[in-house]
Structures are given as C-alpha cells and as structure tokens.
Design goal:
Radius of gyration: 37 Å
Number of strands: 28
Distance between the termini: 62 Å
Shape: elongated
Helix content: 40-55%
Strand content: 15-25%
Structural class: alpha+beta
Number of helices: 31
Length: about 850
Amino acid sequence: MKEKYNITGMTCSACSAHVTKAVAKVNGVKNVNVNLLSNNMVVEYDDAVSSSDIISAVTEAGYGAEIENNKVTSKQTQKLPYDTELENMRKRLVISFIFFIPVMYLSMGSMAGLPQFSFFKHYEGSFNYAFTLFLLTIPVLIVNRKYFINGFKALFNKAPNMDSLVALGSSAAVIYGIFAIYKIVYGYTYQETSIVMKYSHDLYFESAVTILTLITLGKYLETKSKRRTRDAVEKLISLTPKTAIVEKDGKEVTVAYDDIQAGNIIVVKPGGIIACDGIIISGAASIDESAITGESIPVEKKQGDKVISATINKTGHIRFKALKVGKDTTLSQIISLVEDAANSKAPISKLADKISGIFVPIVIVIALISGIFWLYMGESYEFALSIAISVLVISCPCALGLATPVAIMVGTGKGAEHGILIKSAESLEMAHNIKAVALDKTGTITEGKMKVVNIQSFKYSQNDLLQLAYSMEVKSEHPVSKAIVEKAEELQCKLLNVENFTSYSGLGISCTINNITYYAGNRKFILDNNIDITKISNMLLPDKAVAPVYIADNNEVIGIIYVADTIKESSIEAVKGFREQGIDVYMLTGDNKETAEHIANQAGINNVYAELLPQDKENIIKEIQKKGIKTAMVGDGINDAPALMRSDLGIAIGAGTDVALESADIILIKNNLLDALTAVKLSHATIKNIKTNLFWAFFYNIIGIPVAAGIFYKSFGITLNPMIAAAAMSFSSIFVVTNALRLKFFKAEEYSKGDKIMKVIVNVNGMNCNHCKMAVEKALNTVDGVVSAEVNLEAKNASVTLSKEVADSDLMNVVNEAGFEAVSVEKV
C-alpha cells in the first residue's frame, strides 16, 4: 500500500532525514520519500502497518503528520498549505520588523549619528537602555517561538536541525543579555561604574532579534519562491470545471463536477469545458486541447472520437458519454504524475541527504570548540560567545536541503507545461545520462497512418482518377482506402454513383460506375482479373517503401495511386538533435527491411534493425546496454513494452497503447518525437541546476564556517557578526530557490513546418503526352529529398515538394538524363 502524508514542522534537510529515518524504522515499511519542498511524505508499506503507526512515528520524532486527500476535484479552491504557511510567515515577519526597527535604532543609532534619548544615555540610563531592549526582544521571541519549540524538541530527540541552530544561537544571545542586565544591576548596587558601562555595551539582544527577523525574512522569501514552483500543478488544477450539463430523463441538468458518474451523457455547448474523458455520441465540434497537449490549433472532433478532460469546445454542440471521471481523468492522472515526480528523490539528492543528517551535530561541536578555543586564547567571554553564535547561525543547512527538490519540482512542472510527463525524479536524472536512443518506426518516427504520396494517371487527369478511386474506396475501412478518401476529401472531390461494390479481403475491391467495371487493389488482384500490366511495369516508381494501388478497368491499368506511412516532419529534426547531443540513434521495427531503410534514410538514422519481434527489440536494447551505454527506448505499441521496460529510460508516445504508457518512465502527450529531445535537454538543464545549487550550498558552508569561527581574526582581524551571519544564511537559501526558478525560462524544442518543407517548380521542355509526364515524375522522384513530383503538361513544368535542401543541378540533371530539357528551377 502507498499513502501520502502532509508533514508539519520540517525546516531543513536534517528534518526530512530525521523523519525518513523515524518512519523507516517502523516494521513493515518498505519505502519512505520525504519532500522538504512540498512538506509531505509518501510511504509504501504492507498490511501489517496502519496509518496511525506512521503518524505516531512522525509525532515521536518531533513533527506533525496527517493523511493527505489526493482526490483532485473542483473543491480544491480552498487554501493550500503553502498559502496558509505564507500568510502565517507574513504575520510573523511584520511583527518581527515592528520591534526590530526600534531595537536597531536604540542599539546602532548612535553609531549612525542619529539622535538618542537622554533616558537611555550614559551611566544613569544604562539599566533603562538594557531593560527596554529586553522588553522589545520578548515579542520577537514569542512570535518566532516555532524555532525554539521545534529546535529544542529535535535537539532532545538527538536529531538537531536548522531550527536547533537558530534556537541555540538566539537563546545564547538572549541568555547572555539577561546575564548582562543582572551585572548592570549589580554594578548599580555596589557602585561599580566600570561593570555597568562594560555590560551596557555588551548586550546581545539586538543579535537575537536580528537573527530571528532576518531568518524569518529569508524563510518568507523562500516560501514565496517555493510557492511559485507549484505553478504548473496549480494551473492544471484550475482547469477543472466546477459544473457540467448532464442529460437525465431527457432533460439537461447542471451538476457539480464531483457528482459526474461514468456512463453519464454530458452536453457541451460552444465555450464549454469538457469535464471528463469520454466519447462523442452525437454532434461535431472544434476542440481546443492546448491545455493538455500544448497544441494551439483546435482539433476537429466528430461522433466516435474521444474527448479529454479540461479541453474547451470552441465551436459546435456535442453530446458525449463519460468514460473516465474524477481521479481517473487524463487531467487528474497528469496532476498525479507531476506531483509524484516532484515528491520522488533523484539519486543525486542522496548525497545532500546523507551530509545533512550529520551536518548539524558537527556544526554544534564546531561552535563549542570555537568558543572554547578563543577563551583559551585569552579572548573575552563576549567574543567567544559571538564566535559560537555566528558559527551556529551561518551553518543552517537550508540551502543544502533545497538544492535538489526545488529544481526537480520546477523541472517536472516545466515538462508538464510542454506535454512531457516525467514519472519520477530518477527518470528526470537518468535522461541526462542517455548515450543511445532506440526508436520504433510506426507511429513514432512516422505518422502511423497511410497517406497518398503520389499519383500516376495513364488515361485521365489526376483529379479524375482520384475522384474515381474515391468513389470506389469510400465504403471500405481498409487503411489504404482511408488514405485515398482523405486525399480526395482534402481536394474536395465529388462522389460518383457506385453499384455492385465488392470487397476482396487482402486484395482489393471492384464496382461498377457508369456501366463500366473498375478494379482497385494490389498487383496480384489485378493479375487475377486478367488485366495486363506489362505496358506500365517500367513506369512504376522505384521506391519500395510505398504501396502501389492499381486502378484498372476491364482492359487496362488506368492509373496508380501510391500510399505510404510518411515520416513525421519533426522526426528528421529530432534525430539530428539527438546526434548533436552525442546520442547514437537506432531504429527498431517489425516492418520489412526495404521500408525501414527508406524511412531511416529520410530520418538520417544509420543503425537500422527491421523485421523484429517484441523480444528481438528487447534483446537489441540489452546488447547495447552490455557495452556500458545508457539507452532510452521510444515507442507507442504493445510490442514496444518489453523494450521500454528493459531500457534505462522508457519514453512512450502519448497516442500509444495503455501497456506502453504503463511501461514508460516519460510520456509524450503531443505524440511528437521532438519532445523526447526536449526531455533529454530538460534533464541536462535540471541536473546542471542541481549541481550549481549543491556547489554553492557546499561552497557557502565551506567558506562561511571557518570565517565565522574566526580563522582570519589573528591574521587580518576579520570576524563575522552574528547579524551578518543570519543575513548570509538567509541569502544562501533565497539564492538556491531563485536559481532553480531559472528553469522556468527553459524553452522546448520547436519545429516550424515552413522551415523544412519546400516547394520548387522545375520548368521542362520536350513533354508532349502522359508517357512524358510519367517519365519526368519518375525521374524526379529518384532524387533524395524529393517527397513528391507532379507534372503539368500545359504549363510545361513539374511541381516538386522537398523535405530538405536539394541542389537545382541535381533536379535538372535527372530530367536531362530522362531525355528532356530542364530549363530552370524556381522556388515557390
């Protein structure tokens, strides 16, 4: 069983380490993940353990715990823990500053030349001065009592934390100040003027007030910054609608979001939000899915199409059946994944956790040794105390504890913004170690559906041939038929009247149009119907990766429509990006070798494995890993699941199967291979950020502690006042959080269609008939980078679509070699 708990009282990584240790000791607990940033804990335990056992262990350790309600509903408009904490921190800060200002005026004003009250001056006013400072200090101590309660509780539990250091330092200053007041009274009583004047100048109340106020200021700014790290999750939660229109007994009724049940029929009007996942049963609409997929262009949806929660109906009126509601919706699953990733620990964070666990006790020992050392060296008690307090205060390990979790939370949140769902911090860290990526072909590199890529017409115009094929194929459900229908509808072809429609499984179809029998199918189907293909056999396009659909009448083949699973326009750029990152790219596919090599050549992939079974893909991943290479697998099908599991990092294309999504470490919602590259780059940026944070956290303590301990005092007269130490400690925490927030400026990889797909016009002389037309088209299609070529006999030119830059001379040469005259090439 796995449960999430809210934890109160944690202030530094030593706290989280202590909570982890306390809960891990409970018999039956398998795994504990404590997140300082989110102030929560995820515990995995068996049936022998109850939640009360977990809460008791946390309470005994000196902290508070309660089970968190994970349900994501529209009711989540109540104040979040961060908001409450921020509000309380603001009140403490305001009160602290109200008393901090007069304390600083009284104690430091004379040094700045500010006017002083005679009531507090000289020998006569010494007691008034000391006692007034004490009275002004009391409210600051009370309002910040949390440091003392938590700090001493942790100290007594033999697990000192940041609060312990603050409590010890400020308590020492206050206790010494009270001692000084007694000495002043003693001096008055026995007329010892020197004692009165000495101790009236050695009060440390201002140090205690400054320490507590500046640390509270630092914690306030830190909490405010940490609050911003949850922006991605908060934005997702805010997308949840409050109500939905449900059909009940033939009437439309508005119900609360929480009351929607699976099976309900939900009505969505223009401008309405899709409340849950479902399938359209009537109507059509243009749906804005940008909140989930990041795609700004609305998607047209019709009956039978799926709709996703939190998307918006821009135009149209639809009714859909609710399939997934509440915590099962896509939105809730995304929120859950982002939060789980933020709450998990990256391997790099273990170093900080281990150090934090022993850091505070060592600091206390250093503070004691420093104070005793300076007393031994003949310095005053005041000097030794000041040194000890400075060491305690400057060493608070807040920055160390925040170094990893803030970067992880911002990184995973940024990924979610771009449709990249990272399941754990470990996955995010692993991505930056990847040196090889294996890609499935169908649906990953390619579109995953057939498209018309070329048309050869031997008798009619291309449009007339397409209209004929459209009329024949519109009744078929075959993927090839759908490709022809989609192309025809794109060109707004009209349907002809079809009779005697017959489908032959795996071969083709036949029908009658205007009393003429037509056939559409593969080569075997045409030959089986005794239609001669020898006349056009030398006109076939040489590309083996495309499937020719022969269109014939009773006597001859009248045209060929070529269909293929085309490469995604962004895949070429993604592969190039991987290679620029020093990552080797492999293609693993179950498709035939010719098709695989054709797609690989287009994408720029050198390592190609074709005709593979699922276990073959897994074995290839295993072989790559044996070389010591960290390997990622990107796929979308059930047959990719074993390879996804075997790889060091499994990346599932979002449109893939549930099995693939469950097997993966990272999910790409937008079904775009460029997002896999973005995930790798985001990992590099996040890990670099974490390392920067850890460096400065360690560097700060390495430099700060020796200076505070007085290592430069004898040589250069340099010491660190406790007030400066408090300011420095607060700044270090703010710096770490602010540095992590820089990840918000990370930019995802983007693909501009206009930058890659180009069209040119090749002007050609010598073309007179359809045979000339086909010969020129065939010649141009042999050029690497040519997606399609279409000749216009009347205009005496060929319109050529390119997937990359192709030299004009290459296009002209193949036309000339075919026996025609290429005059010029014009860019469109």
